[in-house]
Every structure is written in C-alpha cells, then in structure tokens.
Amino acid sequence: MGKMVEFLKLPAKIWVVIVIAGTSILLTQPIAERYYRGEALYHKYGLWVFFVTVLAWSFLIVDIFLYFWNRQAARNAIKHRIQYVNSLTEDKMLIIRKLYNKPDHVIELRMQAEQVKELETNAVIGKAATQKVLYIWDDPNDPTFPYILQPWVISNINNGKISIDEPITATKGISGPVNRD
C-alpha cells in the first residue's frame, strides 16, 4: 500500500511523461499488433496501460484546473486588497501617504494606535523590526515602532491602481492646499 501512495504522489512532470508514453502506446496498438509479439503485449499489459494513462490524465486535468483556480483566486484577492486600500478613511490614508513619501518607506508609529493595528492586520504595513530599545521618554505601554509599507502597496501606487492623493474638501479647493499648521 505504501508504494501505491508514493506512486500517486509523483510530481506533475512525471505524470506528463506517463500520459505521453501511455497515450502513444495506446495509439500505436494497430501498428504494433501487425508485428511479431505485438498482440501478446497488448493482451497482457494493455488494460494496465489504459488504467495508468486514464489516471495520469485525470491527475493532469485536476492540476490544470487547480492552477487556474488558484491564479484566479490570487487575482481576486489582489483586487479586494486594492479596493480596501482605496476605501480607507483619511487618517489611515494619511499614514500610507507618509510612508510612501519617505525614501525608504519606513516611519515610526505608535504600536497601539487603532489605525496602525488595522493596517497591520490587513497587510498594508508591517513592522520593520522585531525589537526596539525603549528610552526614558518612551511610553512603555504604547511604544513607537518602525513600520514599513508593504511592497504590493508601493507597486500598486506606482501603477496608479491605488490613489493616495488628498481628496478635495472644503479646506482644500481648486486654488490649492491650505496651510493647516
């Protein structure tokens, strides 16, 4: 039984070779039966070759189906992530804007801030370090940590799929931004 399980777990490239070999053996049956001992070969092994070939074809069809299914699922996941980032509130978009405008896309943010937690949970930002030295002036209950903008967000901003421009509001009109400082 163990050898049968190992046989069924062969890689896809091996299954392709088995499909090609089995199909060619089955298709050449009329030619091979004309020659010496060809008919005996097909009477003895023909059914087994047929079963293995059908099994290999079925594995390949399932592998191809799963490949396209996973590819489509990945595309849908990226679309949903892009829609999520485009629908963020202004305070969360401000964090993304600040991260994007830095040359290394890293800034220190409060670890316990609700906006930071949500962006980190949804894989928009990530911690750039696992440990940080706390100084005397740091709040030990809410330390600042370096956060980095995820590469998929940066590439989608560069491609124009994610917009980080400031929206036009009452304080920002056609004439340009208003200095709020």
Concise overview:
This protein has 181 residues and is mainly α. It has helices spanning 2-8, 12-27, 29-32, 38-86, 90-101, 114-121, 151-159, and strands at 106-110, 125-127, 144-149. Helix 2 runs antiparallel to helix 4 (38-86).
Q: Roughly how many Å apart are the termini?
A: 75 Å
Low-confidence stretches: 170-181
The arrangement of helices and strands along the chain is HHHHHEHEEH
Give the number of DSSP strands. 3
Helix fraction, binned, reads 55-70%
Structural class call reads mainly alpha
Question: How much is the average pLDDT?
Answer: 81
How is the quaternary structure best described? single chain
How much β-strand is present in the residues?
5-15%
Largest sheet: 3 strands, antiparallel
Question: Strand order within the widest sheet?
Answer: 1-3-2
Name the overall outline: elongated
Helices, by number, come to: 7
Radius of gyration: 30 Å
